[in-house]
Amino acid sequence: MHRQDADATVTRITGGTPRPPFSRFTFPGHPFPLKLEDFIAKRLSIGRRAARARLLAGEVTVAGESTGDARREVTRFDEVTVSGEILQPSLPRLYLMLHKPADILSATTDPLHRTVLDLIDHPHKSSLHLAGRLDRASTGLLLLSNDGLWSGALTLPGRKVEKSYLVETDRPIPPEAVARFAEGFPFPSEGIVTLPARLEILAPERARVILHEGRYHQIKRMFHRLDGIRLRSLHRERIGPLRLPDDLPPGHWRPLDAAELAYFAELPRIPSEVADPRN
Ligand code: URA
Fold first, then answer.
1. Which residues of 13-27 are buried (b: 16+ CB within 10 A; e: fewer)?
2. pLDDT, tens only, 182-201
3. In sequence order, what are the residues at sequence separation of 6 or more whose Cβ sits closer than 8 angstroms to the Cβ of residue 163?
4. Cα separation, 91 vs 118, whole angstroms
5. Domains, in order of start, for the chain
6. How far does the centroid of ligand 1 lie from the alpha carbon of residue 169, in Å?
7. Contact between 136 and 100 (Cβ < 8 Å)
């Protein structure tokens, strides 16, 4: 199971060894990022020395510019040509928001169920991945991108991007739940305690939960610790400063606009050596 958002490196109980959520090791064999000489060698099935010769001969362009820099990094977004032949077409960077309806999987493919990608009609949709997930029954704001550095900066557990959820429960929420959420819940089998979370009780069976992490079924499991309270619904209304717009109906998506992208520009980029190599 892919748990880029649900995984955690923080171990407040055991102090166990953190592991990088993204690494070349996690995604073995994925091509990016690649040095230009390796990219050319691979695509033309030639040796690295022969690739360097093509570079030295001035046959190579990256993003429309001639280059002889063998060590230049190539991403999936760059057009690369050799002697006028396009080895890789350019790919636009995509940053989309989706209003996820219930009963749709937060995945890009699934043999049985409809996925969020089935809701997106875009010529480059196959390049997208999810920047965080919601359970199948959950609704609300979901971000998708083909820029792994961007989504990594949003979803790495250490980044603590705030997320806000509205929940409805099957029973009244006890007032002491507020302190329990703030203290954190131990999950000994995972060797963790959840980070302090804010619970605002809005009505006996309705609350807002604000988290700084995104573990597997986290909110469900936290409520369940309160005498087995179950959720009737869970809706994500906000990620960082980005709210799900009122005019985006369930099942609909749109690109983030420049102002929305600027919200996230402040997030430090993850170093490329721990970046999601789908980049
Ligand atoms: N916590 C959950 O339990 N489910 C979600 O979909 C999101 C957070």
1. eeeeeeeebbeeeee
2. 999 999 999 999 999 999 99
3. 132, 210, 211, 212, 214, 236, 238, 239, 240
4. 20
5. 34-74 (no CATH), 95-265 (3.30.2350.10)
6. 13
7. no
Half-sphere exposure for 171 (CA within 13 Å, toward CB): 10
Encoded amino acid at 193, one letter: V
Q: Phi and psi dihedrals of 204, rounded to 5? A: -50, -40
- Closest by CA to 180, choosing from 207, 140, 217, 216, is 207
* Residue owning tokens 């649900």: 6
Q: Which residues are annotated as catalytic?
A: 135
Taking CB atoms and a 6 Å cutoff, what residues make up the pocket around ligand 1?
134-135, 138, 217-220, 234
The answer to whether residue 92 scores a pLDDT higher than 70 is yes
**Distance between CA 117 and CA 256 in Å, rounded?**
17
Q: Is 50 exceeded by the pLDDT of residue 95?
A: yes
Q: What is the pTM of this model?
A: 0.82
Q: Ligand 1 centroid vs 141 CA: distance in angstroms?
A: 12
With 0-12 / 13-18 / 19 or more C-beta atoms within 10 angstroms meaning exposed / middle / buried, residue 123 is exposed
